[in-house]
Each structure stands twice: as C-alpha cells, then as structure tokens.
Amino acid sequence: MSRVVVIGGGVVGLATAYHLARRGTAVTVIDRGRPGDACSKGNLGWICPSLSHPVPAPGLTVQSLKWMLHRDSPLYIDPAFALSSAGWLWRFWRHCNQHDYHHGMGALSELNRRAFALYNELRADGVQFEMHEDGMLFLFLTDQGIERSFAEFQAFAELGLAVPSRLDREGVRAAEPRLAPDVRGGVRVLHERRVRPETLCAGLLARVQALGGEVRSGVSITGMTRRGTRATMVETAEGRLEADAFVLAAGSWSGHLAKSFGFSLPIQPGKGYSITITGPEAAPSHAVYLYEMRVGVSPFNGAMRLGGTMELSGLNDRIVPERVAAIRRAAARYLPGSTRGAAEVEWTGMRPLTPDGLPAIGRAPGFDNLYVATGHAMLGMTMAPVTGLAVAELVTGQTSSFDLKPFDPGRFQRR
Ligand SMILES: Cc1cc2nc3c(=O)[nH]c(=O)nc-3n(C[C@H](O)[C@H](O)[C@H](O)COP(=O)(O)OP(=O)(O)OC[C@H]3O[C@@H](n4cnc5c(N)ncnc54)[C@H](O)[C@@H]3O)c2cc1C
C-alpha cells in the first residue's frame, strides 16, 4: 500500500485525505496548527455552485482602486501590500476582463456540477456534519442590483447550476418577514446549501481516522527533499517523513511552501471576517446575501454567522475593527436586530487566492509525485469534496473524471 502525506488539514486537505483513505491509501495529514482551525473554520459555509465565478471580474480594477481609499470597503487593498506585491496585483488586475471571467466561470462550473452529489456521498458514507438545503436569498436596496444579479444567475441557470426566481417587495418579505423597509426585493436561488464549517472539518477528520488515516497537529512542514523529479520526504521540526506521494494543501501558506519546494505558486491571502452570534435574537431563516454591502448571513443550529469582505494585506490574522464594524452596519441596514444575541465571536480567515481566481489542482510542475490542491478563494467549502476526489484519482493513478487543464498548477511558471 502506498503512503501519502497531505500538507495542511483545512477542508481541502481533509477532503483529499478522505478520498485517498477511501481508496485504501495510507494517508497522513500534517498541520502546523489544529486541522480545520484556519480559513475553513469561521466562514459562511455556503455550498453554492451557482456562484462559480472567479474573483477577478470585469470592472473590478477601477472599483478596487476606489475602494482602496476606504478601510471598511468590501475589497480593501492595503497600500503596503500593493507595493510589496505589485507583480501579483498586476497579474490579478489583468484577469479582470470578460474573456477570462467567462473562461473561469465555465471551468469552475464544470467541477462544481458534482458538488451536491459529492456532499450527498459524504453523508451516505457516515461523515457527520450540519447541512441545510433550503437555498439562498439575495437581498437588494436597488432595482438595478436585482436586474444585474438576476442576469448573472440566469447565466448559471443556462449551465444547469441555478434555479433563480425574482421576488418583489412583498415576495421577499413573505420569505423573510423581518426585513428593513429599504429592502426593495430579492433573488431566491433554490437548491443551494450551507454547512456549518466547523462540523464538516470535524466530521471529515473523524472519518479519515476511522478509515485508518493519521492526523498530526502542531507539526509544521519546513522543506522537502527530492531526488530528480520525485519528492522523497518532507522536513518538519520533529524530523523527516518519507512517503510515496505528497499533496500540498496548505491554503494561503502554500505559495511560500511551493517556493521552498522549488516551484512558483502565486497564492496571496484574501482576508475575510465573520461574527458568529450564539442565540441570535432575530436570525433569518435562509442563507442571505446583502448584495450592495457584499455581506453574507448564515443561520445555523442555535447560531448565526455574518461574514464577508476581502482584504489584501499579506499573511496576518489581525482583526481590523473598521472591517468588523462594516459587517455589523450592513446587517443592521437589511436585517434590523440581527446583530444581537447571547454571545458572539469575531473571526478572521485567509482565503487562498491565485491571480486568475482559479484554484490550482493537479501535479506540481517538475514533480512526478507532488500534487497541489489549493487556491479556492471564495469557494473552498463548495469545492473541497470535488477537489479531494480529483486529487485522489490522480494520486492513485485512476483516470480523472474531471477536466483539470484550467487548474494546472504549472500555469504560473515563467516560460
Ligand atoms: C469570511 C469568509 C467566508 C467564506 N465563505 C465561504 C462560503 O460560504 N463557501 C465557500 O465555499 N467558501 C467560503 N470561504 C472560503 C473558504 O473558507 C476557503 O476557500 C477554504 O476554507 C480554504 O480551505 P483550505 O483547506 O485551502 O485552507 P485552510 O483552511 O486555510 O487550511 C490550510 C491549512 O494548512 C495548514 N498549514 C499551513 N502551512 C503549513 C505548514 N508549513 N505545515 C503544515 N501545515 C500547514 C494551516 O495550519 C491550515 O490548517 C469563505 C472564506 C472567508 C474568509
């Protein structure tokens, strides 16, 4: 039986370990902290194939330059980051065009077509986690917003990935009675789901262990030894670990590790924030998106999470008060009373972001037995099972059931 080491125990690493373990592979997950404790913890947990689009979008360059002046804007680029990472930012902005956006949408949609089926399989296999299947509701303060968003969902409807319906002022209140008077209408997207991220990571971890996998916490990978095109072992503070294959799934830290392994993977952290309110006084009954403010709301069992925003400021876990306050303001504007509850926790997490907005899934350039599974940006929860399956197929030499060309980790090498 071959041995595989998965570097990083976020949702992507855990889903990869799960699919490998199910194929009878001896798998070890190594995490520098506690598995599931980084970006995969406090996010909104939407499983949303109908939002399969890359982050770089037409018009975002000009918009992000304007937003750069405001620390509480939906996308904030820290001036120090802009200087130190100008090359990455330039590549990101170059992808903010119609052609690349539509190419990315097509590629992501193809993969996400199987997202729900794979979540059903996790459940059927006994992975325990909280999941809700009652769709999403987008709320708008302007009629233009409704028109624009509905048109975007229709593009996904044509790809078979969304069932959107437009709701007027009364319709949206029939779905969610406690809305502020300013809310003009909504778009409801049926079939989308949400999971409580912490429960999904815990469920995957337990199932990996039940299948014989090993999970090691508090162990940081610091380097790799290779012989020709084969990686032979990873180095940790606790010693070296040999394996037949390796999967790099270290989220926002993957770029630095890739560099030390000898290849280029331009991943930058896109920081987001959330506030989890336990015992909320006024939670909506659906997952709700506050469109103009770019804030999402996820009701869970006994709790509600408000989250969103994107901050490019490098690797750090600082909680910037202005950004958390902006989330609170947005919630109060659409859903009065929704920020009150028995207790609350503020959180920040770093989404792994590539300059073209597509994840890197596949064999690492220059290696026969090192694979990459990262860069999922806003879609890591949605895509974790799909990615895990795709990587497990590659590692175990099965014919891939996905077209992984658009996600080739080698696309970033300088030619
Ligand atoms: C506010 C917010 C809301 C979001 N909402 C959604 C949503 O609704 N739906 C959705 O699909 N996605 C959502 N996302 C995105 C999603 O959270 C991420 O895409 C996903 O969690 C990334 O998972 P990951 O496993 O790649 O990374 P992580 O969860 O960050 O895991 C990487 C792991 O690698 C480990 N690691 C790093 N370096 C090393 C090393 N040297 N050695 C060993 N281990 C190492 C880390 O400790 C960490 O545990 C949201 C993100 C944010 C911030």
Major β-sheet, in short?
9 strands, mixed
The CATH architecture assignment of the largest domain turns out to be 2-Layer Sandwich
Number of discrete domains: 2
* N- to C-terminal distance: 37 Å
Mean of residue pLDDT values: 95
Shape estimate: globular
CATH topology (level 3) name of the largest domain: D-Amino Acid Oxidase, Chain A, domain 2
**Count of β-strands:** 21
Could you write a compact summary of the structure shown?
By secondary structure, the chain is of the alpha/beta class. It contains 12 helices and 21 strands. It folds into 2 domains: 3-41 and 199-265 and 356-412, FAD/NAD(P)-binding domain (3-Layer(bba) Sandwich), CATH 3.50.50.60; 55-95 and 132-191 and 268-353, D-Amino Acid Oxidase, Chain A, domain 2, CATH 3.30.9.
Task: Give short descriptive properties of this protein.
FAD/NAD(P)-binding domain, 2 domains, six-stranded mixed sheet, 21 strands, 28% strand, D-Amino Acid Oxidase, Chain A, domain 2, binds flavin-adenine dinucleotide, single chain, nine-stranded mixed sheet, alpha/beta, 415 residues, 12 helices
General description of the model:
It is a single chain. The protein has 415 residues and is of the alpha/beta class. The protein has 2 domains: 3-41 and 199-265 and 356-412, FAD/NAD(P)-binding domain (3-Layer(bba) Sandwich), CATH 3.50.50; 55-95 and 132-191 and 268-353, D-Amino Acid Oxidase, subunit A, domain 2 (D-Amino Acid Oxidase, Chain A, domain 2). The protein has 12 helices and 21 strands. The strands form 4 sheets. Strands 4, 6, 7, 8, 15, 16, 17, 18 and 19 form a 9-stranded mixed beta sheet that branches. The protein is globular and about 65 Å long. The two termini are 37 Å apart. Flavin-adenine dinucleotide is lined by residues 7-13, 30-33, 35, 37-40, 43-46, 220-221, 249-253, 257, 272-274, 307-308, 349, 351-352, 374, 376-382.
